[in-house]
Amino acid sequence: MADQKSDELDEPVPDPIDDEVRAELSLIYSKANDALLFVKAQQWWTVGSTLAVFMGLFVIAKLVGAKAGYISALTGLIILMTCACVFMLVIYQFWQHNELARIQAVVSHFSATFQKIHSIKSPTEGNFHRYTLLAFMIILVILGAAITYMGLDQLPRWPR
């Protein structure tokens, strides 16, 4: 009878696990999901705060009547911040990948129904979405840096 149900599901049925192991797996799954949401929020926060700092640098340069040396220093800072932001976004992406691998490892021990529901969105589709958003974030930061640089370049420099 058990073989017949297994054939009907057309999916491998995981070995039964005791309540203690199920609780541990549920905790790992929950913590990995929380970490995944945290990392995604950190990515967007990094992009937003970097763009806000770019805007702040431009406003400060405009208010103080920046000299040529000051503009050059700000330009170097913008390049440095852009590189650091892109680096952090990539690190966050690797962190997401690790959490997703942890989730996938835990899911393999849950019921066939849970696995079926979990697999509604394919890993390929999820990766496409994640990397498309990563590219969008990187392009956004680079565009913000370019616009800030162009704005700084338009400021009158003293002495001329």
Q: Specify Rg, calculated over alpha carbons.
A: 24 Å
Topology as a string of helices (H) and strands (E): HHHHH
Anisotropy-based shape: elongated
Integer count of domains: 1
- Strand tally, please? 0
- Helical proportion? over 70%
What separation lies between the terminal Cα atoms? 90 Å
* Major β-sheet annotation: none
The average pLDDT is: 86
Describe what is shown at a glance:
The protein is mostly helical. Helix content is 83%, strand content 0%.
Question: Secondary-structure map with pairings?
Answer:
Layout: H1 2-9, H2 19-64, H3 68-107, H4 112-118, H5 123-154
Helix pairs in contact: 2-3, 2-5, 3-5
What does this structure look like?
This protein is mostly helical and 160 residues long. It has one domain. It has helices spanning 2-9, 19-64, 68-107, 112-118, 123-154. Helix 2 runs antiparallel to helix 3, helix 2 (19-64) packs parallel to helix 5 (123-154) and helix 3 (68-107) runs antiparallel to helix 5. The longest helix is centred in the first third of the chain and has 46 residues, at 19-64.
Question: Which keywords apply here?
Answer:
160 residues, mainly alpha, 5 helices
